[in-house]
Amino acid sequence: MKKLAVSFVVVATTAAVLAVPALAGTTSVKVGDDYFVRKGGATVTVKKNTTVKWVWTGRNPHDVTASGPQSFRSGSAKKSGSYSRKMTKSGTYRVICTVHSGMKMTLKVK
Amino acid sequence: MSRLCTALAAGALSALVAVTLAGPATAASTPKRTSAKLKLSTKTTTTTLKDGTQRIHYSYGPVHIAPGQNSIFVEPNDLKPKVDGYVTRFAPNLILADGTIPRVDVIHLHHAVWLVNQSPTWGAGEEKTTAAAPPGYGWNYKTSDKWLMNHMIHDLTPTPETVYITYDIDFVPKTDPKAKSIIPIRTEWMDVIGGGYPVFDAIKGTGKLVNGKRRFTYPDDDPKANAQKAAHQWRVTKDGTPVGTAGHLHPGGLYTDLNVTRNGVTKNVFHSVAKYWEPAGAVSWDVSMTATPVDWKINVNPGDVVSTTATYDTSKASWYESMGIMATSVADGHHGVDPFTQSFPRTGQVTHGPLAENRGHGGDPIGLPNPMKLLDGPVVEGKQVLIDGFIYKQGNMTGVGMAGRPPVVQQGKTFTFVNKDAPKGLTGQVFAASGGDLPIYHTITSCKQPCNKSTGIAYPLADGDVTFDSGELGYGPGGFTAAANRDTWDVPKNLPKGTYTYFCRVHPFMRGSFRVVPNKT
Q1: Per the CB 3.0–4.6 Å rule, which of B139, B289, B333, B381 could disulfide with B87?
Q2: Are strands A91-96 and A104-109 parallel, antiparallel or unpaired?
Q3: What confidence tens digit (pLDDT) does each residue in B228-265 have?
Q4: Using one digit for the tens of pLDDT, what is the confidence trace for B451-468?
């Protein structure tokens, strides 16, 4: 853990020196029928300030409803499109589709 | 969550046990939940049991389930034994194409009834009771018998699915020497209502007060039931012996009773109890029913009237479209005891323990807003709020911004919900083979605020402080449907001011709210 923390600091410092804004980029998450990422669900870990983009790829209606350090949601179920959210608070989020019992994922923001 | 994990872990070791058990499960210790990994075949297979009896596994399907469907079908069924003989045990189930059993909070076996020469003979509800004839008895089977499958498989989500209805028959061919000593039985279908779609509503707060709790018994406590009374009575015309029975109930049901009336005196002959594995109590399909012990045999005489009642817990919630059935196997002649003068067991044991498919109980916080705290939505009095694509278009709890806010109506005024997912003219068909689109029925049913937790077999419930229910909006075949045969519902004008939360009891992930404000005029 200590080693990891150190290397992170190094990266951050380098970025600061280069005067590049601390853009953590975008991570895409698949919204399939009826699962997130892959069947059986998954844990996705991103850096703070990453924008997570959920992308609908299936035929059934789904939503993204999350609880954790903050609650957020994509709105009522839809069959296509995407939903993006910049994750500004670290912690563990539990993300579900309210339509489909058992359709869930864990989102860790570090 | 932790109770769920514990139940799953505990169930891992008990794979197959509850389903393959021939006898009743013992009630002495809490049985373990079956494994979620249990798989059944989608093909017909035959195994031979130790005593030489054949166990034939049938798989009826594929049955294609349309998004959100809640329709009844009757279809020919040729999946039956190839030779004459006796059926001594019947164990039903429901599986997906991969052989796994679907979660009950996703795909739900409302019923499957096996009709033999048009008489209902075996049935399955989500409690999946095994029907076992006592030793020495068997349902008489002839290859010339015409079988029909009457099924109602309910899709709780917009995801289409393919399922199979399975049944394991223990079978003794007529040519087997054992067949000579088997006494034939038939099924007397003891339903609290006869014909059509036999359901009643057990409304919260109705029924008798027993030790501070509400107990609603059908038909006794339903004033509308008198006209139908004749339909649920079996008037005995020749000597007979009921040799087995078990109750069928829906969530909220506590017990069914089988009664015999002779010369004006009524005697209870079996009390089938709902054993709830559900941690929240008598509120879900996580239940098993007790069945008669093997030595239960009751003599009935010509002139006797056999009837059944079903009792529900109406203390905390309403139970819509409830059922009460005691499929009773009967032999000709007298083989048992006189129920009025001799002693016999009135209670029995469950036929299986808790099932893995009932593991999704619901009720966990998921981050949906509390509608009580939302700002007012648009004023809708005299207007329509549409239900379209499984969404209440105003006030849906997953909605963001204005769409998620409760529509507002003044006290004494109303607005109208319209179900666009089941328009007039779309009725579905009794025979699935005829195909076509199916209507998707929705309800507006009050649930206790905030009603914003995760969906499962035990959440949400029809437990609003003020009780209301729209019926299943949409159209279906006459007398053979859960549908209200209208597609609109007017919000009652007499509601006290406040924010109301509701759900669709057909698709309980659908949640919404509306708000009643004081009349300004």
Answers
A1: B139
A2: antiparallel
A3: 555 678 999 999 999 999 999 999 999 999 999 999 99
A4: 999 999 999 999 999 999
Task: List, for residues B17-67, the tens digit of each pLDDT value.
Answer: 233 333 344 444 566 787 777 788 889 999 999 988 999 999 999 999 999
Distance CA B198, CA B110 (A): 12
Asked if the structure places residue A19 within a domain, the reply is no
Full domain range(s) for residue A69: 24-109
Scan for tokens 């959210």, then name that residue.
A85
For chain A, list residues with pLDDT below 70. 1-24
Looking at the partner chain, which of A65, A76, A100 has a beta carbon nearest the beta carbon of B403? A76
Residue B458 domain boundaries: 362-521
**Contact with chain B for residue A75, Cβ under 8 A:** yes
Given B150, B181, B212, which residue is the final one in a domain? B181
Distance CA B133, CA B257 (A): 19
Question: Does residue A9 lie within any of the structural domains?
Answer: no
Q: How far is B187 from B408, CA to CA, in rounded Å?
A: 53
Whether residue A60 and residue B389 make contact (CB cut-off 8 A), yes or no, is: no
Query: Cβ contact (<8 Å) for B367 and A61?
Result: no
Nearest to A67 among B367, B398, B403 (CB): B367
ipTM of the complex: 0.86
d(CA B465, CA B448): 6
